[in-house]
Write a structure and sequence with these properties.
241 residues, alpha+beta, 10 helices, flat
């Protein structure tokens, strides 16, 4: 996966005239446009082998370290929302090849940034984009606090952009390939035969209680469901904690 920052292509895709820029900015934009042109030519000359790309994705998903981070899960409205994580999406994109994905700050002032997340298939020229606004505010239990440090602002933007980038990648990659990757990750987590899901749930609850004094009820509140309904992803979330 190539993370080229393509200002010229972004402006063209959004059908907006580029704002007045300095000579340095124009040179950077010109260089970025040339890099994308080279990437597109390379993608046409060396198209992906779909079968090899698929096999690379499946092999990646056999790694337990990736499988444990492959799915996100959180409670919302009394239900559990789950799906492929940005870690899995980027791994799939990397093995699929000839893709350009990432995010670009289009406009920024002291209080907010306008950002575009995107994924571009350089072979087919199909692009998926999402433009959104990020307020320079950190939400906490004690209220909202404005951010002024450039590093804090960047980390906030990167965090919120990751979800949109994931959505763009998953819109470009064929759904059956994504489904196969998710299935392989689940098989990887359950395939070692050392511990069933029920045993893993009991083990994680015991460890939290003995080592940290955290009760089962606390874990159920954190996950958003009863322990009997914990999934493999629930256990992996708790292991991450």
């Amino acid at each position: 996966m190539n993370n080229t920052q393509n200002t010229a292509a972004i402006a063209e895709f959004e059908q907006q005239a580029p704002a007045a820029r300095s000579v340095g900015a124009e040179l950077i934009a010109s260089r970025e446009a040339q890099e994308v042109q080279v990437a597109m030519v390379a993608a046409k000359r060396f198209p992906r082998d779909v079968y090899n790309a698929y096999n690379r994705i499946i092999q990646d998903c056999k790694r337990r370290t990736l499988a444990e981070k492959a799915m996100y899960e959180y409670p919302r409205g009394g239900q559990t929302v789950t799906g492929p994580s940005i870690h899995l999406a980027r791994a799939i994109a990397r093995s699929w090849g000839n893709l350009d994905s990432g995010f670009k700050v289009l406009e920024q002032n002291a209080t907010e940034s306008t950002v575009m997340a995107y994924c571009w298939d350089l072979e087919t020229n199909y692009r998926e984009t999402k433009v959104f606004t990020v307020k320079h505010v950190r939400e906490t239990k004690k209220g909202a606090f404005p951010l002024t440090d450039s590093r804090d602002i960047y980390e906030l933007i990167a965090n919120q952009s990751a979800r949109r980038e994931r959505s763009c990648i998953l819109s470009v990659i064929p759904q059956d390939v994504v489904d196969a990757a998710v299935g392989q990750c689940n098989a990887t987590l359950q395939g070692d035969g050392k511990m069933t899901k029920e045993d893993a749930v009991r083990d994680i609850i015991r460890r939290f209680s003995e080592q940290y004094g955290v009760t089962k009820e606390m874990l159920e509140a954190y996950i958003g469901r009863k322990a009997e309904a914990f999934t493999v992803q629930s256990v992996n979330r708790l292991r991450g904690v």
